[in-house]
Amino acid sequence: AGSKLREVFDKINNLLSGKPVQTEGQTVSVTQHPQGLEFVCYKLAEKFVKHGEGEVSFHHDSAFPIAVVLSGIWELHPRVGDIFLAHLHRKCPYAVPFYPARKEGTSVEEYQRMLGYEVHDSKVEEQDHFLKRMSGMIRLYAAIIQLRWPYGNKQGAHPHGLSYGWRWLAQMLNLEPLADVTAMLLLDFLEVCGSALVKQYGIQFWKTMFFIQKSYIPRIEAVTSSGQMGCLSRLKSFVQKCLQEKEIPLPKGILTPSFWRT
């Protein structure tokens, strides 16, 4: 509910502003320790990324309420946004976007971690689980860049707005595609913020979609084995349908004005 989201936002904002906040039966304040504010910014940013790789990966719609709170907090407390990006890029290098190359002397285990895989006791997580987590984080990122907290003053620019999404897309299409990962990331990103990008960039966006269809999808196909076609097929269908209908559908779960009256 919109009212519940406002409560969450106000509590986080009050905490970061140095006001005393009630939590789990006690009153806490960042002024209680010299590094209190820095610690809270760090843990809060980390928590938002965890929401992306956890909650959003399983419930795509949850990207929007989480993103709108973070967007508002980022606007008032830029330090949280900076640390959020640092956590996000470490956990999901594809949000940069960046495909780390393996350097000489780097162990397989260490390289897997650089690619974003979780490694416990030399055991690497399964591909499906890895892709799900990356998907959740990219969806959260794609939601953040298009949303603003509706009760802010709106005078300044979005602290990390659509221009960053446009740049992400351009950089992504300049990278050599990876099997599995690239198709999934592009589909997630376009599903979540394609409609916002087309509103902002118009004809330039449609040229990019045409490039994806004619040039980039064949490059993804060239590195994709027959057992990895699922996501690529969905990306092809999505792009084709959007180009045919000259429209990008609004993402499922987007927050409407009526949401804020709940």
From TrEMBL:
Gene3D superfamilies: GLE1-like. Required for the export of mRNAs containing poly(A) tails from the nucleus into the cytoplasm. May be involved in the terminal step of the mRNA transport through the nuclear pore complex (NPC). It is found in: Cytoplasm; Nucleus, Nuclear pore complex. The keyword Glycosyltransferase does not apply. One of its GO terms (molecular function) is phospholipid binding. One of its GO terms (cellular component) is cytoplasm. Belongs to the GLE1 family. This is mRNA export factor GLE1. PANTHER family: GLE-1-RELATED, MRNA EXPORT FACTOR GLE1. It comes from Scytalopus superciliaris. InterPro entries: GLE1 (IPR012476), GLE1-like_sf (IPR038506).
